[in-house]
Each structure stands twice: as structure tokens, then as C-alpha cells.
Amino acid sequence: MFAPLTAGMNVADMAWEVKCREEDMKQRALENERRAIDDARRSVDEKAQQLKAISHLSALIAGFAMVVIVEVQIDPSLSPVLLTIFGLTVSIVVGTMLIAMLNCTLMLVAILRYNTVLREVPFGDFWRMRCEEDFKYALRCFNAGVPMFMATLGELGWVTYNSHPNRDVAASIVTCVAGITLLLWWSHTERKWTDFLLGGSNAKLYDPGDSVFPNVEIRGARDTEKDLEEVGEEGEEGGGG
Known about the structure:
By secondary structure, the protein is mainly α. The protein has a domain at about 50-200: Butyryl-CoA Dehydrogenase, subunit A, domain 3 (Up-down Bundle). The protein has five helices and no strands. The protein has helices at about 5-70, 80-110, 125-160, 165-200, 220-240. The longest helix has about 70 residues, at about 5-70. The relative contact order is 0.08. InterPro entries: CRAC_channel, Orai_sf. Keywords: Membrane, Transmembrane, Transmembrane helix. It is found in: Membrane. It is a multi-pass membrane protein. Belongs to the Orai family.
């Protein structure tokens, strides 16, 4: 007597479960899409901040060099050789920093045009194909301009104090300070960071072969997944027991 009613209720329950499952799948797909959009936006913002940092600093150094060219007072008795070297180094500073600034600015415009919603191409592939080589080129130009800027500072004392009676002492101090700064740049900053930054997408924050922290255990996403699987298996065993 109640068999048709029971069968109808079972069918209704199955239909409800199917509907709930479809809605759950749609919600998960929507959340995954939102997550993908947020990840793309974070990647674009990360690269934009890197490009802005190099572009702004390059423009600042190039501006300093241009001020030196405009404001420095050249003594007519200055050695032609020193004057030629000074003009060459200042020009190299302006040129290299200008190239770095322009490359970073144009790359910044390019990545800001990337559509984070449609994502016809993944942003990582877009960066590797269109921007990474230019980013490395801009960074090399920036690294080449920094030593030239320090060389300009070392020469500036001899150019500015040429007619002063105590020229040798004052100019030597300026040159020594510039030389020490350049040595620190080459021995630490440039040596430590250039190779890492030029590594591009293949650069690693941690090298397993590095023994700086030999007793520290580095755990990544795979280790976390294994831990979660082990916890799940233990829970199933406990539930079965």
C-alpha cells in the first residue's frame, strides 16, 4: 500500500541530492574562478611593483647625473683627459639608466593591459614570453649604470675642486668614498642579488644544497598534502575501529 509513496519519496530525495550536487559544483567552479582571478591580479601587482622600483630608481639616478652635467662648473685649466673621462662616464650613467627606466615603464604598461578575468594566456607564460628577457636587460643596464655613477662621483671632486689650493686632499677623500662604496656594491650587493634576480622564473628562494641552515627542515606544499592524507587515513581507521 505504501510502496508507491515510498518510491516517490526516494525519487524526490534523489532529485534533491542531484540538484544540491549540481549547485555545489557550480559554487565550487565559481570559487575556483574567483581564486584564479585573485591569483592573476596578485601576480600582476607583484611584477608591477618590481618594475616600478627599478624604473623610479633609474630615473632618480639619471636625474642626478643630468643635474651634474648642468650644474658643474668646469675650470678652463682642467685636464682635457679628465674632462673627457668625466663626460663619458656621466653620459653612460644617463644612457644606461634611461634604457632601464624606459624598458620597465613599457613593460609596466604591457602587464597592466593583461586581462586577469579572461586570461587567454596564463600570466606566468605571458611574462616569460613577452617580458622576462626585457626585464633582465633592464636589470643589466641598471647594474652597469651603478658603477658608472660611482665613478662619476669619484671624478666629480677633481672636476669641482680643480682650482682650489687644497684640491688634492678634498678630491682624494671624495674618490676614496666613491671607491669604497663601489667595492661594497661589487663585493656584496651585486654579487648576492644579481644572479638571483636574473634567474627570472627559475630563481629559487632556497637551495637544498646550501648549508647556511643545515638543521632547519624546509617543508613545502607536498609535505603538507602528505600530512593531510595521513591524518585522513588515521581518521578513517579510527572511525572503522
